[in-house]
Specification:
This protein is of the alpha/beta class and 163 residues long. It is 36% helix and 15% strand. The mean pLDDT is 92.
């Protein structure tokens, strides 16, 4: 199996890469991130994972559809694509979240669809359901409160538009 991981140098991405390497069916993992592994404060365990011959890193600005085309240079056809990339700092403007969460997710989903990826996974947040204190199911009513949560919901809706 081959994997394309958007945002693979972040906390969730680096752990996903390490986990996928433990699966004997994993043939190739292509990690796309704006921050190279050498600058991502990886632990020894994660550094070892990124040094594995099955892992390829490529620095790409996911906000630019033209830059996404650079991923083709690695010459891998992907079975699965996981997007864990997004702006996660709190307190930024709605415009920043619109671009670095919703637009970014749309670009990634569109690229994956164009490449014929078998399965695309978009990581979101339970915060899109609000803070009722109750467990929410996927089909529960959404009620995001803050800009980040609103943009994560918008990202989900954007991704749903891609086959």
């Amino acid at each position: 199996m081959s994997y394309l991981i958007f945002g693979g140098c972040g906390f969730i991405g680096r752990n996903l890469v390490t986990y996928l390497l433990s699966d004997e069916t994993t043939q190739k993992i292509v990690v796309i991130d704006k921050i190279p592994p050498a600058m991502a404060w990886l632990s020894q365990k994660h550094s070892a994972a990124f040094s594995d011959s099955k892992v390829i890193f490529k620095a790409v600005n996911l906000l630019s559809k033209a830059n996404l085309q650079k991923i083709k240079e690695v010459g891998v056809n992907f079975d699965f694509c996981v997007n864990v990339a997004a702006e996660t700092k709190l307190g930024l403007s709605k415009e920043v979240y619109e671009e670095r969460v919703a637009k970014l997710a749309g670009n990634c989903a569109e690229y994956a669809a164009e490449q014929g990826v078998k399965l695309y996974v978009e990581l979101s947040t339970a915060q899109v359901y609000g803070s009722s204190g109750k467990i929410s199911k996927e089909d529960a009513k959404t009620s995001p409160k803050y800009d980040f949560e609103c943009c994560k919901l918008k990202a989900e809706q954007t991704v749903e538009q891609h086959p």
